[in-house]
Specification:
Layout (H helix, E strand, L loop, with lengths): L1 H7 L4 H11 L4 H7 L3 E9 L8 E12 L4 E10 L2 E12 L4 E8 L6 E7 L5 E10 L3 E13 L2 E10 L5 E10 L2
Antiparallel strand pairs: 1-2, 1-10, 2-3, 3-4, 4-5, 5-6, 6-7, 7-8, 8-9, 9-10
């Protein structure tokens, strides 16, 4: 609908507002994200070099819905390379683009990672990508895969493909609901 009206040319203010209002209503993907609200624990394995054993860590994640069920904020705390670590992910389903979009910020950088992607047909896996100029590996594509194992468990895997290079598994995390 939005594409058709957009192509017609000019719209009056009321018609524009109706398009925006319709797109602002939380839908099934938003309700799925809302099921993640709560307190979680994390177990992480991170590879700094592909041929070396991963570093392991643990932490917590608090997940909260914002702005009437439109956005999920994930607040992570834990350890990374022996240092305390915090990160915030804000994820949503964009009704207009039909994609999941998210931003990631953390205490180990000053950049903002912007991801977007789609869910699998069964809705149990969300795959997103982000182009980013990595400070060590240069221009790269990050690929994140979130799999909903069950209502109390998420598996999250992050891959990095440097420009002209092969994809490397960088991190995997199991996120479990606190019981």
């Amino acid at each position: 609908m939005a594409q058709e009206k957009k192509q017609e040319g000019k719209m009056d203010a009321q018609a524009m507002m109706e398009v925006y209002q319709k797109l602002a209503v939380p839908t099934a993907p938003h309700k799925m994200l809302a099921k993640l609200v709560g307190e979680w624990t994390t177990k992480t394995r991170a590879w700094m070099e592909p041929d070396k054993p991963p570093m392991e860590g643990s932490g917590t994640c608090k997940q909260t819905m914002l702005l009437g069920g439109r956005y999920l904020q994930q607040d992570y705390t834990g350890e990374m390379m022996g240092n305390s670590f915090t990160g915030i992910n804000l994820i949503a389903y964009d009704n207009h683009t039909k994609k999941y979009v998210s931003t990631w910020v953390d205490s180990m950088s000053t950049g903002i990672y912007y991801f977007e992607g789609k869910a699998s047909p069964d809705g149990k896996t969300i795959t997103q990508e982000c182009s980013y100029d990595d400070p060590v590996k240069g221009p790269a594509v990050w690929r994140s895969v979130t799999r909903f194992v069950d209502e109390n468990t998420l598996d999250y895997v992050m891959y990095l493909t440097p420009k002209g290079g092969e994809e490397e598994k960088m991190m995997e995390m199991t996120v479990s609901r606190k019981q």
